[in-house]
Amino acid sequence: MRTRVTILSILYFLTGVLFLLFENNASFVPSFVLKMMMIPLLIILFLFNIKPAGNKFHIMMLAGLLFSWAGDVLLEVPVQYADLFVPGLGCFLLAHIMYLLVFLTTPGENYILRRGSFLIILIILYGTGLIYYLYDSLGEMRIPVIVYAVVILTMLAGAVNRKNKVNPSSYVLVLAGASLFVLSDSAIAINKFGHGFTGSSIIVMTTYLTAQYLIVTGYIRQ
Known about the structure:
Elements: H1 2-22, H2 29-49, H3 56-76, H4 85-105, H5 111-114, H6 117-138, H7 142-160, H8 168-193, H9 200-221
């Protein structure tokens, strides 16, 4: 089992590296195919370790991965064929909702409400600062982006809230993954609506791939 997990992990990150190498290729096909392969590899790794049948938490995690995969596919379609940014954003919104439901409803003491209120303040300040920075340039996407920001930051708060509910290894991995997911989506928002910056695709993909991997492997350790 450990060998299969190792092989799948290597293939997952190798696919991500190859995607970055082919992303600016004249043909979009290689990068599109590679993007389609990423999350399925993670789903296989998840299914090797977890049997979703009959467990609502496992099912919601699997649903989150499937929504993420759909979002990946939609966002990789070239704009000249169809502008699927909003549907792709919607898929990732659903993915984050699945993750936050898992994190927030994990049985145990609600750490963030009783002892971690200062972390809620930090999360709110971060989200407020990001929206303030992007606000004037969001245009008709203002409401969708604000809703998305609220959901993903709630997901991060849910990851914080797992403290003392799960073992330390699971807690740290999932929290690191959720934090990287916020950074990845922040980079997307800044690059698209704020100021485009060099190397944005590398930052977005490395943080995104690592985030998904840490969330899944952290959840498995739970």
